[in-house]
Amino acid sequence: MRTFKEHRPGDAMSQSITLAITKGRVLQEALDILDKIGIRPEEEIESSRKMVFPTNRNDIRLMILRGMDVTTYVEHGIADLGMSGRDIILEHGGNGFYEPLNLHIGQCNMMVAGLKDEGTLPNRLRIATKFVNTAKRFYAEKGIQVDIIKLYGDMELAPISGLAHRIVDIVQTGNTLRANGLVPLELIEKISTYLIVNKIALKTKYDKIQPLIDALGGATR
User: 55: which residues sit within 8 A by CB, 6+ positions away?
Assistant: First the structure.
């Protein structure tokens, strides 16, 4: 497995880089991948309230963010690279970064789901989701007009209560859907975590970033 050579002050590759990682369920998987290529935080992340952490590489630091924020920090160049779910990338729709690698962690599906016994539905559906842009694109491509209702959580309640006819949400096991009388109906996208790279940073820090991309690619094969 490829790892990085230890950085020495004053060498030709002295520019530091910042890697943004999503907090939550995929954090440990992301840290495990970094550990495989010899990059480790110098402090315990999960027990800390800090958001920026040094690593054993004095030219690399980690930034721990909410999932929805990783793409924004990378697009604006605050972070040079990030690990972000494909669902967030699709919703963000930013053009300030590349997506060179599928890291194959945090795998799940973005689905349309509805009540198991939903009965006859009207021609124009109400769709509840936090993935508003993605849902709009999905139904526009199918030529179906819908009304989108933005929610931030507890999506299953929307069809049960009559707020919406169907939902667009992330599905892992499907247990929560079944427990609330819903079933998955259509697959929108298979989701996993991707490495994203700020376009300008890749040009200005190429000698630092490209070896990192290569090493992560080797660690996830």
Answer: 34, 39, 40, 41, 42, 61, 62
pLDDT digits (tens, 9 = 90+) for 55-87: 999 999 999 999 899 999 999 999 999 999 999
Summarised one tens digit per residue, pLDDT across range 82-138 is 999 999 999 998 789 999 999 999 999 999 999 999 989 999 999 999 999 999 999
Average pLDDT (163-182) is: 96
Q: Please give the model's pTM, rounded to 2 decimal places.
A: 0.87
